[in-house]
């Protein structure tokens, strides 16, 4: 039997990564394994000029629930119209029902150091920092799903930034960029549609 090539194995994991909103507060792997995955992603995901600006905070158990049931719930209640809040609260409760969350940050100290060291590229470093952040998000998401977890990526920053910083003693220089909610799958992902690949990829000189 022919074995899969390296790219086939990687692409299979990439294709399997989907957005799972229905999650259970359980995990098929240990907290230690989840920690190991996040550690490996943060260590080995590339960054511009090897800046290594991405930071991650993993929340399990009551700490995870605190992020959604208290911090995010209360922040949204303060800004969402009362007649629309029931649907919002239900959505946030779904996140709280997951097993954990990885909060991703970008350390602005590293960005500023590069801007000072390479003034010619100064306007680009904040953009490249966002590229680095996105790479960490998708790598972590894909790796967790390869272990049988479901996940969805949320962006309640900057609405929750101050409360998150205060609750978990986050440095002022860490800018919150995304929240990856994960847990055991309790349902199937929705259908996925694609724009024709011919409209998205062009090849020359083949």
Secondary-structure map:
Layout: H1 6-16, E1 23-24, H2 31-44, E2 54-60, H3 61-77, H4 85-96, E3 100-107, H5 108-117, H6 125-146, E4 149-154, H7 161-167, E5 174-185
Antiparallel strand pairs: 1-5, 2-3, 3-5, 4-5
Helix pairs in contact: 2-6, 3-4
Structure at a glance:
With 206 residues, the chain is of the alpha+beta class. The chain has helices spanning 6-16, 31-44, 61-77, 85-96, 108-117, 125-146, 161-167; strands at 23-24, 54-60, 100-107, 149-154, 174-185. Keywords: Cytoplasm, Nucleus, Oxidoreductase.
Characterization of the model:
The chain has 206 residues and is of the alpha+beta class. It has a single domain (21-187), classed as NADH Oxidase, CATH 3.40.109.10. Helices cover 45% and strands 17% of the residues. It has helices spanning 6-16, 31-44, 61-77, 85-96, 108-117, 125-146, 161-167, and strands at residues 23-24, 54-60, 100-107, 149-154, 174-185. Strands 1, 2, 3, 4 and 5 form a five-stranded antiparallel sheet that branches. The two termini are 31 Å apart. The mean pLDDT is 96.
